[in-house]
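PROTEIN DESIGN WORKSHEET
SECTION A - STRUCTURE
LENGTH: 88
TOKENS:
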């Protein structure tokens, strides 16, 4: 009998994911939501001032812009060896 056949079934990945891990995650989320004061946690995480709210909004916007494609300012970092502004 080969080592491959001796792996426990719970360690196997089925299709695109591990169903056991997904089940555990859902169960832990349900337990958290049942026992945590979600409203209080949300209030504690909310911006404490208009300035902080603006900074968070600007950071979120910057992150969303970045996720849509490459940042031309990062050509060297994104593509090592590329030339930008005539520099090697």
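SECTION B - SEQUENCE
RESIDUE ASSIGNMENT:
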């Amino acid at each position: 009998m080969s080592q491959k056949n001796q792996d426990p079934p719970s360690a196997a990945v089925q299709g695109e994911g591990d169903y056991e891990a997904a089940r555990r995650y859902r169960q832990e989320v349900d337990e958290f939501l049942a026992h945590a004061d979600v409203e209080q946690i949300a209030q504690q995480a909310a911006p404490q001032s208009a300035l902080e709210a603006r900074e968070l909004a600007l950071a979120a916007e910057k992150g969303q812009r970045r996720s849509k494609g490459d940042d031309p300012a990062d050509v060297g970092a994104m593509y090592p060896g590329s030339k930008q502004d005539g520099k090697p």
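SECTION C - NOTES
The radius of gyration is 23 Å.
Residues 15-67 form one domain.
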